[in-house]
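hiii so my PI (J.) wants the whole complex modelled not just the main chain, which honestly fair. so below is everything: two entries, each one labled with what it is. i double checked the lines twice but i was tired so who knows lol
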Amino acid sequence: AQSVTQLDSQVPVFEEAPVELRCNYSSSVSVYLFWYVQYPNQGLQLLLKYLSGSTLVKGINGFEAEFNKSQTSFHLRKPSVHISDTAEYFCAVSAVSNSGYALNFGKGTSLLVTP
Amino acid sequence: NAGVTQTPKFQVLKTGQSMTLQCAQDMNHEYMSWYRQDPGMGLRLIHYSVGAGITDQGEVPNGYNVSRSTTEDFPLRLLSAAPSQTSVYFCASSQRGRYNSPLHFGNGTRLTVT
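here's the output for the full assembly
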């Protein structure tokens, strides 16, 4: 079974600084990787996804992530953050099971952007 | 577009009471699922369904029942609420077998059990 580890529970950063949110996964099969964002009092929405092909994936709001198979990582990056990026970020991995597929989430990283 | 609609948004129950959390989607998605979100625990899968008449257990199914009589609806039932079920519940849907299709989430139901 696949699992996801988000290495930082909280990441404080100043506005316009770069940020990296770390995610590692474990799986013995081909996986599909996702980053979701949750703004306060809302559901989750997709930031970006890796299915196959180029290991550098670009998403919404200027975020990007790099799939590194040898290190089983899928870190999320943004070169310059805004106050509005303050939110909870979840890394997720999916794999095929007999009944379809299930998406497993990490425990989340809280990004706090301050002026 | 409505997407995934969850009702109610907030609910307070006493221990032992029962209730149903409603979830409906209008995207003709075959796959639907329920997650609970607790501080420091991320999202944990409760139950999921890959189509009408088909349901399966996720990571934390105890204390919850589901059914899927239509493609659109996937209600979550708490038969006898316990304080440990205090949480925020999210319903999500996607196209079955389409691994490049992301989950679409509702806005959540915040449940408190006293």
